[in-house]
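Troubleshooting log. The previous structure file for this entry was overwritten by mistake, so regenerating from the original sequence record. Sequence copied from the archived sheet and checked twice against the printout by T.R.
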Amino acid sequence: MASSRLSVLLGCAVLIGTAVATAAPTASSTALEQRVRELQDKEEIRQILIRYGEYLDARDYAGYASLFASNGISQSGFGVAVGPAAIQAILEKNLGKPEPGFINKSNFHLMTTEVVDVHGDKATARSRYLFFTATPDNKPAVALAGRYVDEFVRENGVWKLYRRTSHGVIPWRDGNNRTPPAPPAAVKDLRQ
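Regenerated output below.
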C-alpha cells in the first residue's frame, strides 16, 4: 500500500513537472529571449558599421550602397543621396570608379566607439572614424577625423542603414549642412 501511494505520488510529480516544463514561457524566459534578440540586433548593426568602412576602402561602392535601405539616405561631405543606386552614383562621381582588381594601398578608415540602441525594428547608432592616408614616405597619417550619426531600419528582416550623417570633427564640417564645402585635398587625391 505504501509503495502504491509512493508510485502515485511519483507519477503525479512527473505529470506536474511535465506540465510546468511545457507551460507557456515565463516572464523571465521571455525577457531573456528579448535580451538575446537585442544583443543579436546590436551585433548585426555593428557588422554593418564595420562593412561600411571595408566597402568604402575597397571602393566596392555597390557593396557599400547595399548596406542602405531602399529609401536610405547618405548625407556626407559629398552631398545627399537617397536610395542605393543614388548612393553608389555619388561615390563614383566623387571618388571615381576603381580599376578592375583594385587593391587599396594608400588609405583606410578606422571605425571606433560604436554605441547602438535598438527599439524594435528601428535603431540608432553613434560612432567615430579616423581616415588614414599614406604619407610621401609611405607612413600612415590621419587625414580626417569625424563621427557618424545613424538611423537603422529592419527591411525584409535585415538591418539596413536608413540615414547616415557624417560630421567632420577635424576639419570641422556640419553633416546637416545641405551644401557642404569641398572635400579636403587628402580626400580629393583618392581619385588618382
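Strands lie at 68-76, 79-82, 107-119, 122-134, 140-155, 158-170. Archived copy saved in two places this time.
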